[in-house]
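Running low. Any example?
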Amino acid sequence: MTHGLRNVPDAGPSGPRGHGAPALSAHVEPAEAATGGDVTTAELSGYPKEVLPHHLEPAALPAVDRLPLTGGGEPDRTSLPPVPATAGAPARDHIASAGGEGGGTARRIAALMSDVLGHPVGPLDRFDLLGGDSLAAARVVALVRTETTADVSLADFIAEPTAAALARQVETAGTRRWPTVSRMQGDGTVQLTDMQRQLWALRQVSSFPGVTTEAFRVGIDGSADTAAVRAALDGFVARHEALRTLIRENADGPYGVVAPAAPVPLTEHDVRELSAAERDSVVQQAAQQAFDPARDVPLMRAALLRTGPDRAELAIAVDHLAFDGWSSGIFVNELAATLDGSAHLLPEPQVQPGDVARYEQELFAVTARADRAFWQSELEGAVPPYALSPAPRTAVPGHRGARVVRPLEPALAKALRVFGDSAGSSPAAVCLAALHVVIARWTGQPDVVVGVPAARRDLAALERVVAPLLTMLPVRIRSTPDMTFQSLTAVAALASGRALGHADLPAAQIADAALAAGVSRPYGVALTPVVLSLRPAGAPVRATGEKVEIRSLGGLDGGAAQNEATFLVNETAFSTEIQLCYNTERFDETTATTLLDGFVGVLTEGVAAPGTACGDLAVPEPPAAVPVGEEPSAPSRPHREPATVIEEFLAGSWCDLLGVERVAASDSFFDLGGTSLAAMRLTSEVWEALGVELSVRTVFELPVLSDLAEVVEQRALAALDQEDSAR
């Protein structure tokens, strides 16, 4: 790897591992543009930690007058001078303060890592190379915080994932009282998790009723008796409160009311004699459902498709307010156990989503200040890829979607894993690097922000909770055309690690931090219009019992697109596939297909030849855009100060909500930095102060203060007239 040190003053490309080196080394030559002074190890020693993953940090940095080159102009590794055998020794000294390689704090933390991974881990073993993903890392940090009360950093552990390094954190960090999650009894009224609040806000904005619908399919081999399937579905709803929680609103915002269990609507279809197109039609009808979370219990519907003797498929539609990718794995396991006659052995969840929501609020109170400062710094000057599509946006987002699907060839799926392992990176980082290349080429911006879902399941009690326990993190990656794909993957891994280490902040506050950082976005559009989502590691795709086997068959097109473009890398029981779920108002099928094929193509080429410069990777040009006109915008209005009581009230409310000093009657809520979550808070304030019911959608349709004030005034007068008539 020769790119990592090119931006160091007075340094040129590095060469990896010299002869006899006990650890990774980097030979350094002074840059040709150097002016005065020799490059010293002390000057360079801190830089690799900033730009390279822990496993690529060199243990030795010997300087040479000139790197030997091959005839092709590349560093000649075979001609590098030997590195002294003692050069890498200090890398092992850091565990001394932790009680030695086999004792003290490091040994105890290694035992916790072993518990999480299910196999032995030593104090110097790299957690990620032993199978530890980001969720497992979060669980280790949570365990360490609980046991020691130390204020250890997940970001630092991801950057240096060894028990010894984490032990050093424990010994030098301060202490905190970390919250825990527990089951609380109440009257059935519960708080919503942060993601549930985001999804509820999305529903208030969107004109598409099915905007939060998700759908997937499982295969059943063995006992598929209709009554047994129905009982299994109903039992699943009874165990998991999220599927039977009604959403209500008051002056403080949305909250949940847990309702009694109700049967899952189940239809049955014999599709054995149907054509492939007819089968697809049945599945599509089952998938494209719309729920009303204020009225519908449960938030799940199903269709049982008979495909053969003792063989069937189950198409499931759920509302994302009650479900996520990890929840689908719980469903696979519990469906198998129930159909196998072992439902009585299923343990009840230790906690329910309302308990988790309370835990989140306590955790946010501890971490919010530091995480908000991080995001404001991380997103300074960022420009998310709002221009990936040239199509104009509608005034009120519609969120209608479609999907393009590409199977990932087995050879590529294997190569992806092998390359990730050899590079010390996760498949997610490799995919993120490939997506970055495509977006950077299509937008002409090498500074790219992509949304990456992060699970909030760091405690053992959360493993069996069915609910959307995740958040969307804006991962920012910057590249140059001469950066190799392997180097870009390392950068993507670092960026992901930084983001994951600061995930304990409500989505609304991440959005506020982005606004403070100068991120300007179209109103009604998510901070991250492009998202990369991989099936959670550890979520089962197959569950086998004595009488039945349940197999995950992948996601279905529910007809919605919560983001402008979401790349879904799904592992099923039989293969891996990549889906692009796209907003049909922003992309047509041809453009979406080209975009997905470009992503798969870069992934294929980058994994096969990781030394290729990103600028040399083949990316298809976007299809010629149909002339679409200018982005819709509000007509220009002359400046006017608030003149009525309602206008003055709204102006004061906007100042408080948006953090601005003055608001004119001619100002637009979204031009001042308003978001859907801020609009929700505004509607609550209007109701509490004036008794006027105002929807978030109305705020989007009438964002100018004077227009909105006129509607509020009309409704307030109408309410007074009704009161007079009732007297």
Confidence is low (pLDDT under 50) at residues 1-23, 85-102, 626-632. The radius of gyration is 28 Å.
